[in-house]
Design a protein that fits this description.
The protein has 279 residues and is α/β, with parallel strands linked by helices. The chain has a six-stranded mixed beta sheet, with no helix packed on it. A two-stranded antiparallel ribbon has the order 7-8. Belongs to the AB hydrolase superfamily.
Length: 279
C-alpha cells in the first residue's frame, strides 16, 4: 500500500513505516472472504469488517473502483470512522476511501486483555499447565447514559470542539442503544490512558519525520488543543518540509473536529492535493 493516509500529524508520522513497504492493493485483502466482510449500504458506500487475530477491524468504504488503491482514513484518539462521514462524500471523486475504526474504537474489537490471554492459553495448551488459580474475576459493566446526557458530556470533554450534530454522527458507530433508549459507549475504556505514541521522545518523532518522503498535507485549525509545547509541533513540521518531496501546510479557522463540523472548509485545500497525487 502506498502512502495515502488521512490522520493527525503525530499519528501519520508514527504509522508511515507500517505501510511504506506494503505494495499490495487493499482491495485484495477486502476481497478475501475468509478475512473480511463487505456489506453494501448503497451504491457508493459499504460497511467493511476485516478479520484480525483478536477479532475484527470495522470500517466504511466509499467508492467501488477496484482498480485503484483506496485512501486509508484514520480518525483521532477516542473518535471513530464516522468522523469522516461529512468530509469523504465531498472528496470521493478522487477515488475510493476506506475509513476504519481503530482497535478499541467504534465497531472494532478491543485489543486482548492479559487475563483473557492467560485463560485462552490454559484452554489451548491444557497439558502444559500444572495448576490454574483465579482470584475474584470481575465483569466491568460500562456506564449507561441517556442520549442527550451523553451528547452534553462529549461536547464538554471536547472543549466545545464538537457540536450536538457532530456527536450524533459519532454515536452511529460509537454507542450501543439499549431497549429502553439509553446507550453505552462502545469504546475500550483503556483508551482513556494517553495513546502509546505520546510515550515517544521528541528525538524519536523527529527521526521518524526525517524518513517521510511522500507528499504531505498538514491542515491546522486555530482552536486545536495542543498537549505539548508548540515548539515541538513546529520542529516536526520543519523536518517534514525538508524530508517530504512536497510538504504543504494550511491554517484554516475552526475547531479540533473541523473535518466533522465544517468539512466544506477543507475541500478547497484537499482537492488540489489529491488531484495532483491520487491518480
Amino acid at each position: 500500500m502506498d502512502c495515502r493516509i488521512f490522520g493527525s500529524l503525530k499519528t501519520t508520522v508514527a504509522i508511515y513505516k507500517s505501510f511504506k513497504y506494503n505494495t499490495g492493493n487493499l482491495y485484495l485483502v477486502l476481497q478475501r472472504s475468509i478475512y473480511s466482510k463487505v456489506e453494501p449500504i448503497d451504491k457508493d458506500v459499504s460497511n467493511v469488517e476485516i478479520v484480525v487475530p483478536w477479532g475484527k477491524v470495522a470500517g466504511k468504504l466509499w467508492g467501488n473502483d477496484k482498480n485503484k488503491q483506496p485512501i486509508l482514513a484514520l480518525h483521532g484518539w477516542q473518535d471513530n470512522a464516522a468522523s469522516f462521514d461529512n468530509l469523504i462524500p465531498l472528496i470521493k471523486q478522487h477515488g475510493p476511501i476506506l475509513a476504519i475504526d481503530l482497535p478499541g474504537h467504534g465497531l472494532s474489537t478491543w485489543l486482548p486483555r492479559g487475563q483473557m490471554t492467560i485463560k485462552y492459553y490454559n484452554k489451548i495448551f491444557s497439558k502444559a499447565i500444572a495448576q490454574f488459580l483465579m482470584i475474584e474475576e470481575m465483569e466491568n459493566k460500562p456506564p449507561i447514559y441517556k442520549k442527550e446526557e451523553l451528547i452534553k458530556k462529549w461536547i464538554k470533554n471536547s472543549y466545545n470542539s464538537l457540536t450536538a450534530d457532530a456527536c450524533k454522527i459519532l454515536m452511529t458507530r460509537g454507542v450501543t442503544e439499549m431497549s429502553d433508549g439509553t446507550v453505552f459507549i462502545n469504546r475500550d475504556p483503556r483508551l482513556r490512558i494517553l495513546p502509546v505514541h505520546t510515550c515517544w521522545s521528541h528525538e524519536q518523532l523527529l527521526e521518524m519525520a526525517r524518513d517521510i518522503k511522500c507528499p504531505y498535507l498538514v491542515i491546522q485549525s486555530d482552536k486545536k488543543i495542543y498537549m505539548e509545547d508548540l515548539k515541538y509541533y513546529y520542529d516536526i513540521l520543519d523536518i517534514l518540509k525538508e524530508s517530504s518531496n512536497d510538504c504543504r501546510y494550511h491554517f484554516i479557522p475552526g475547531t479540533h473536529h473541523i473535518h466533522l463540523v465544517d468539512a466544506q472548509a477543507l475541500v478547497k485545500v484537499i482537492d488540489p492535493f489529491l488531484e495532483k497525487y491520487n491518480r
